[in-house]
Structures are given as C-alpha cells and as structure tokens.
Design goal:
Blueprint: H1 4-12, H2 17-26, E1 29-32, E2 37-39, E3 47-53, E4 56-62, E5 65-72, E6 77-78, H3 81-86, E7 93-96, E8 100-106, H4 107-116, H5 118-143, H6 147-157, H7 159-164, H8 167-174, H9 178-190
Antiparallel strand pairs: 1-8, 2-7, 3-6, 3-8, 4-5, 4-7
Length: about 190
C-alpha cells in the first residue's frame, strides 16, 4: 500500500525516491482502536492526523456535557491547530469513534522534513491555507443553518456519518438535544 501523503504530494509535484522514503519515515501510518484518545483537554498537541480510514470525534465539555464540534472521516485532517501553533493546552478531546487508520504528522518531524527538502514547505503551506479557507467557509455556512437544515445537509453531504456516529453525538454536533433530533427525523420522514 502506498503512503497517503506520498500519493497526495505526488499529485502536486514529482517526488524522488529519497523524498518518498523520507515522507514515509517521518509520518508513520498507525491504527488506533475505538475509544482511543489522540488528544485530551489540557494536553499540548504535538501531532496532527490525516484520516485514512475510520472516524474521529472532537468534543469539549460544557456544563458537564460533551459537545461535539467535529467529526472527521476518510481524507480529513485532524488537529488542534491552536494548541500546535501556540504550544498551549488543548480545549478539546479527540477520540476515535471507531477503529481508525491515520497518518501521524508530528510537528518536529515535519520541520525536519522542511529543512531537508525546502520545497515541501511552500507546497504544504499553500495546501494548508486552501484547506483552512475551505473548512472555515463550510463551518460558517453550517453554523448559519437551522438544526433541520443542518441535518438535511449532513444527509446530503455526509450520509455515512448518520450510520457511523451515535445519534446523541449527531444531535450534539447539530447543536440540539437528542429528543429534538428525533422530532426532526420524524418530521422529515413524513415529508
């Protein structure tokens, strides 16, 4: 199996054998079991992750309840960028909602790779800026929707989540109580 980061960078630029090997050695692919925490509130993030297979949930505790603020599946990047950039304690928990295969992107190894192959830094920076811009637009558009429209959006764009993630976590992600989600689902089933 080819390394996902090698595949992605190969689509942007030609890679030498040395560059491919350096990427594979710097960013190992690991498998984590369901329920494994990749980061806990209060820890300082050292790694980012690229989901190859599985689902990772980001949440925080508010008034004693878990509030889901992110659901990441195949192809998604997962990180607490604020904690990584500022070396500050995370405000979030990142947990595997199911068995997950990820590429582990360690910031120190990433910096060493950029030093060894300076062209990677510019390529990755441009791609990172595109990803952040796209995610910000998606998040802002999602936040402006009513709970029913958020649910319809999930049905249309990420229907797999509705099967893979427990309904109480979906409700939290939508910003509603499980009972409200149940009413929304019933109402939509009638239409």
């Amino acid at each position: 199996m080819s390394h996902i980061l090698v595949e992605q960078l190969s689509q942007m630029t030609g890679l030498s054998t040395e560059e491919k090997q350096a990427i594979e050695q710097s960013f190992p692919i690991k498998i984590f079991g369901k329920g494994t925490f990749l980061l806990k509130e209060g820890q300082i993030a050292r790694d980012a992750f690229l989901v190859i297979e599985g689902c990772i949930r980001r949440y925080h505790i508010e008034d004693g309840e878990e509030v889901t603020s992110g659901l990441y599946t195949e192809g998604d990047s997962v990180a607490d960028f604020n904690s990584l950039a500022n070396q500050s304690p995370s405000k979030y928990f990142f947990v595997c909602s199911e068995k997950a295969t990820v590429a582990v992107i360690n910031t120190e190894k990433e910096a060493a790779l950029y030093k060894r192959f300076p062209r990677f830094e510019a390529i990755c920076r441009v791609e990172f800026e595109k990803m952040v811009g796209q995610k910000n637009e998606e998040t802002e558009a999602f936040a402006r929707k009513t709970p029913e429209d958020k649910y319809l959006s999930l049905q249309a764009t990420r229907p797999d989540l509705l099967q893979r993630v427990p309904q109480h976590q979906i409700a939290s992600y939508l910003g509603v109580k499980p009972e409200t989600l149940s009413r929304i689902r019933k109402r939509l089933a009638v239409k």
